[in-house]
Structures are given as structure tokens and as C-alpha cells.
Design goal:
Blueprint: H1 3-19, H2 21-28, E1 34-36, E2 42-45, H3 49-64, H4 66-78
Antiparallel strand pairs: 1-2
Helix pairs in contact: 1-2, 1-3, 1-4, 3-4
Length: about 90
């Protein structure tokens, strides 16, 4: 699994913890390039992983605003190698 794919999985699972699994998975599953398991794991990612991450972040931001920003800041702090991509 690529670093970006792992980061996307962590992004989804973190949002599941904050927003609830129904909302977080519903948002993630609207991203056409992602196939997501019920536990938030990325099963398949087609196309550009960074574009998928940006689309997912935008969707969460639109839905949850500052809450999503806080989740992403926490994830980026834990994964500084990916911070520039997020």
C-alpha cells in the first residue's frame, strides 16, 4: 500500500471516529476513484492518489468545516512526510 493510500485510509478512519461511520464513509464513497471497506480501509484507488486525497479532503471540509481541518492537522502532524501533499 502506498504512503498516500495509507494516509487516505487514516483520514477516513479519523473522520469516522469524529463524524461517525455513516457520514464519513458516505462522503468517502462519493469519491469515484476510491473503493472503501466498511472499516474505512481503502480497497482500491484508481488514478492519481494525490488527486483522490485532495478530493476527499475537500469533501470532508465542505461537510464538517473546522472539525475536518482539526482532524487533518492532527494527521499531518503524525505524518510529516505527507504534510505537503495534504
Amino acid at each position: 500500500m502506498t504512503d498516500t493510500k495509507k494516509f487516505i485510509t487514516r483520514c477516513i478512519t479519523a473522520h469516522m471516529a469524529v463524524l461517525g461511520p455513516v457520514a464519513a464513509l458516505g462522503i468517502a464513497r462519493k469519491i469515484p476513484s476510491l473503493k472503501i471497506a466498511d472499516d474505512g480501509d481503502v480497497l482500491a484507488l484508481t488514478g492519481d492518489p494525490e488527486a483522490a486525497l485532495k478530493e476527499l479532503q475537500s469533501a470532508y471540509l465542505l461537510f464538517a468545516g473546522e472539525t475536518s481541518q482539526a482532524v487533518m492537522r492532527t494527521l499531518e502532524a503524525a505524518h510529516p512526510a505527507l504534510e505537503h501533499r495534504a
